[in-house]
Amino acid sequence: MAITLNAGLRREYEQLFESCRIRPERMAEVERTIDKLVQHRARYDTVTARRGVPWSFVALVHNMESGGNFSCHLHNGDPLTARTVQVPAGRPKQGSPPFTWEESAADAMALKQLGERTDWSLAGLLFQLERYNGWGYRRYHPHVLSPYLWSFSEHYHSGRYVADGRWSETAVSKQCGAAVVLRRLAEKGLVDFTDRPRVTLYAATDAEPAAREPLVPRHTTRRTADAERAEHLQRWLNTFPGIFLKVDGIPGDNTSGAYRTATGHYLPGDPRAGQDPPCTQAISS
Fold it and tell me: What residue spans carry the region label Disordered (predicted)?
């Protein structure tokens, strides 16, 4: 039976993403991956312009499939000096080698029938990432969330395919999952989703937060005795559409900026607090 993005699967992806916590011991590696992807964003944007696929999806697949190597076909890792030899063979069909990476990547997206009409909501993007790798985990080992998405997060512990069709219950993925990188990109404000645009100033949105606004800590760039209160605030802010904060108990610039987005004010002690306009002026503008 074909796997489709029905309402149940959509909500599963959303809940997993919202509750995704990156393992602290893996955070440095995740940050290095983010830096590498952002460094080459212009190249990913070129594929976006050609196919209408979000730059983040292209970047994540590139990182997962070839470690970010720009000398290989995105289809299967074959060299760009010729058409692909491995499955899918003979790609790209148009043009003559050597191919640019951008030409090959656009062809790989076309072969997967991915483009501007694809559902690029949060759940839709996660669905396409899992589809790109295959449904083996979901079909045959549903007790293990695919490490292709969730490795390096608290959602994944062990279990993986160590070769085609060969399963190990104890093997652990050593590659950061695509959804984990995506979560960190969202936390850093580097991606948006079609169904979750970042809320406008003063939370001009129809959505209601899940809980009443908590007492706020003072702005700081280090963890203090107020860490529990800061974590509470970060979880509350994460209930607003388009806000994704790392829940680390440090009410720094990102948390303060998100608080201003939701309420119109920076956290107490934030040097930017003097920039807050009077509420009446901001609301009427």
Answer: 261-285
Torsion of CA 73, 39, 197, 243, to 10 degrees: 120
pTM (2 d.p.): 0.77
Q: Which of 218, 228, 227, 232 is nearest to 271 (CA)?
A: 218
**CA 160, CA 172: separation in Å to the nearest integer?**
6
pLDDT digits (tens, 9 = 90+) for 182-221: 999 998 889 988 887 655 444 444 444 444 555 688 899 9
Question: Bridge partners of 166?
Answer: 163
**Residue 183, both tokens:** 């979560």
Closest CA to 177 of 152, 199, 144: 152
Q: Mind listing the pLDDT tens digit for each residue in 136-147?
A: 999 999 999 999
Distance from chain centroid for Cα 127: 12
Domain boundaries, the chain: 7-168, 197-284
H/E element, 168: strand 166-168
